[in-house]
Amino acid sequence: MSFEKHRNILDYSVNFLLRRKGKNLATILVFTLVVFMLASVVMMMNSLNHEARETLSLAPDITVQKIIAGRQGLVPLEYISTIQSIRGVSRAEPRVWGYYYDADEDATYTIIGVQSLESLPLAISEGGFSGESAVLVGEALARAKRLNVGDKLLLRDHRGEYVKFVVAGVFSSSSALQSADLIVMPQDKARDFFGIPSGYSNDIAVYVANPAELPNIAIKIAQKLPDTRVLTREQIRETYDAIFGWRSGVFLASLLGALLAFAILVWDRASGLTAEEKREIGILKALGWSTGDVLEMRTFEGVVLALNSYLLGVILAYLHVFYLGAPLLKPVLLGWSTLYPSFELMPVVTLEDLLLIFFISVVPFLAAVVVPSWRASTIDPDEAMRGI
Amino acid sequence: MRATVLLVALLVIGGCAQKGDESVTSPKLEPVPIPAEARCPECGMFVKDYENWACEVILKSHEVKFFDDPGDMFLYYTKHREAIAKIYCRDYYTQEWVDAENAYYVTDAAIPTPMGFGIVVFARLEDAESFRNDYPSGDILSFSELAARGVKPR
To answer: Which residues of A touch B94 (CB under 8 A)?
Structure first.
């Protein structure tokens, strides 16, 4: 019996919503827009943070760069034996890498020269690594240049001459940020391609078995090789965090305007009901509705509006960020986006994010709908109807 | 009524605690991977969180005890010397398991270790000497020397 009553109240609230179609649609529109913008930023920041962390997990424990006159220079390979002589260092490897501008695609690729593939923990979706002129390419790059395994890849080296490479494998797209624009080739080949003299590398990757000893080893390297800059993974992580923190801070600040508009909307609803709405509540009470029934009706109404807007906003944000690649946010948030031939954000959505958005949008809205109705429904129906 | 609820709650909590104490055995007296729920019998800390300081004591019954600080291992050793078959610690530099009885120990109260015993384990004497250079007031001791001297937290 009581279920029937609730059903009737729900029925009434839906009719109530339909009667004020224009006003309610406007509310849904504004509400959806706010949720959409908030969710877009939160989803994008999360995805970027996730990718950055993933990239960082591939970074060596310590990176040693040579500094000449305050600028980064090439590291002589003799430094490696000096570093390896420090106890606690399990491995020190030279790294040869650089950027390559492809005029045809108007894109910049990262070329990495490796001694063996094992030192590169990236998944290869197809092909292997064999032969002198073999290269592995990132999935996005392969797509942009329509490359398949076995195809030729012509790149201009530092002399301006074209060098022919054979695509031996393609990285899988599971690690897009790390491998999207990557070309991996044997280290000697890369040295020759960039014109890096033999006996030198770009930097040295140092691996340490015991994380507790890492800071000590970093200090010892800096003492033994005073002309180097020693970066621990922790320092790189802090830099990432600072950059992402700053960027998201800037964007959230600009979003304050939208939030303010939302607050005004909520305030408008909270500051009181229209005379018409008050009269309606008065009539309902005169017809025998209790305060609880009126509140239930208004809550249904608020929930329908809020949940629809919330779901619509979140779904639109998801499509915007992960299917369209966040065209509205990208210029602000990604400094490097123009470098990539194609860059897709990994869909990462956590329950906390959804709850966060829920609590700063739906909850205040529901409060703004229910509280004034509760005030209106406690007054005398006679007074409410007369008050117009 | 309230007392019953309390009793049931205590039993449930007790049951959970019991679960963490499931014993691990090593039939060949070799080091075993540290289970996530293993606690140090001396201080009660989870050992997995301090894996790079870990020690394992294998009893004659093949049961394995896990320790999060070499100092805790020594406390246990002095109390249960007769029941112990084999002891392993992690080498500070290489992070490989070493036979504790043939290892070298650098002790200095200034070394930050999980329980503050200031004891660091090395398989090779040269490594221990190199590490001592970082802590000039430290001593290099063998297992028996350290066991005879006794350990105490800072």
So the answer is: 90, 209
Question: For residue A318, what are the contacts with CB-CB under 8 A and spacing of at least 6?
Answer: A39, A43, A347, A349
Least confident interval from A34-43, A67-76, B13-22, B38-47: B13-22
Is the C-alpha dihedral spanning A36, A37, A41, A42 positive or negative? negative
Residue in the structure block whose two tokens are 């600028």: A71
Q: Determine if the pTM surpasses 0.80.
A: no
Q: What are phi and psi of A201, to 5 degrees?
A: -145, 170
Among A42-56, B50-64, B138-152, whose mean pLDDT is lowest? Answer: A42-56
- Reference A177, options A48, A86, A69, A66; nearest CA is A48
Judged by CB atoms closer than 8 Å, whether chains meet at A209 and B93 is answered as yes
DSSP B33: P
Question: Chains A, B: CB contacts under 8 A, how many?
Answer: 22
pLDDT of residue A129: 65
Q: Using the predicted structure, report yes or no on whether residue B122 has a pLDDT greater than 90.
A: yes
Asked if A211's CB is within 8 angstroms of B93's CB, the reply is no
Is A99 in a helix, a strand, or coil? Answer: strand
The ipTM is: 0.74
Summarize chain A as % helix, strand, coil (round to 5).
60, 20, 25
Closest residue of chain A to B113, computed from CA coordinates: A212
Residue A210: list chain B partners with CB under 8 A: 52, 92-93, 95
Q: Do A87 and B127 count as a contact with CB atoms less than 8 A apart?
A: yes
The answer to whether the Cα torsion of A297, A299, A302, A303 is positive or negative is: negative
Q: How many residues does chain A have?
A: 388
For A161, half-sphere exposure in the C-beta direction (CA atoms, 13 angstrom radius) is: 6
Torsion angles phi and psi, residue B76, rounded to 5: -65, -40
- Cβ proximity of A152 and A111 under 8 Å: no
**Residue B33 to chain A, least CA–CA distance (Å):** 17
pLDDT, tens digit (0-9, with 9 covering 90-100), for A207-246: 999 988 899 999 999 999 999 999 998 888 888 777 777 7
Task: Name the pairing type of β-strands B84-90 and B63-67.
Answer: unpaired
Helices A351-378 and A291-318, packing angle to 10 deg: 150
Contacts of A237 by beta carbon, 8 Å cutoff, 6+ apart: A53, A56
Alpha-carbon distance A208 to A11, whole Å?
A: 67
User: Which residue's structure tokens are 């004034």?
Assistant: A372
When pLDDT is averaged across residues A246-260 and rounded to a whole number, the result is: 75
DSSP string, A10-72: HHHHHHHHHHTHHHHHHHHHHHHHHHHHHHHHHHHHHHHHHHHHHHHHHS-SEEEEEEETTEE
What tokens were used for B80? 């249960």
User: A-chain residues within 8 Å CB-CB of B69?
Assistant: none
Chain B residues whose beta carbon lies within 8 Å of the beta carbon of residue A211? 52
Spatial separation of the C-alpha atoms in residues B24 and B35, rounded to whole Å: 9
